[in-house]
Amino acid sequence: MAVVVSTSPTLELPKHLDSLIGQTVPRERRALAALAKAAPPRMCIVEVGTFCGQLAISMAWGSAQGNKIPIYAVDPHTTFTGRVDTGEVYGPCDMYEMYKNLANQPPEIATLVYCVAVPSAVAAARWPPYSVALLVIDALHDTSSTKTVFHDWAHTLTSGSRVAFHDTNYDSVVQAIQELQDEGVQLTALYTPSRSLTIYDYRITEKVP
Known about the structure:
single chain; 7-stranded mixed β-sheet
């Protein structure tokens, strides 16, 4: 399991965000909003797997108090079944909810969120390098998919970028992070705002000639 090495940052958010459909708890949203506020200029934030936009909107509230960098919510919103035991089904209806949630935000918040309705790999392949200050991975939670998302987006990160893995209460996600570290990926645990969210510092590995 990840080790907490410092107190998680936090930022108070409007109470109405708690009523939006989502799968994050308030302390997770407050922590990521604080990181969004602190993100450097001329960078961006990418969330892979946005569902109905609750977390993306929360990060926009943080960014609006900082350097106003954009949040890109990457999710094709195609129909698929999540956990078999709960019968969770996701799809186009979630995109409808996301746009509705954005429409109910102040313009200075809503205009910071960009919906990228294509598969993660397609978006990542066209993304400029060294441009992402905060990468939030909250897509499929099996080990292989979690690692694939990270590898697809790794070229967009720079030393000091933050990588947030959601659902680290899943053994499969923890296994993915461990395997990435075993491969030599420099991910150092910084904060664990909840049992299901761990935020890492990323460093580019220097290649030996």
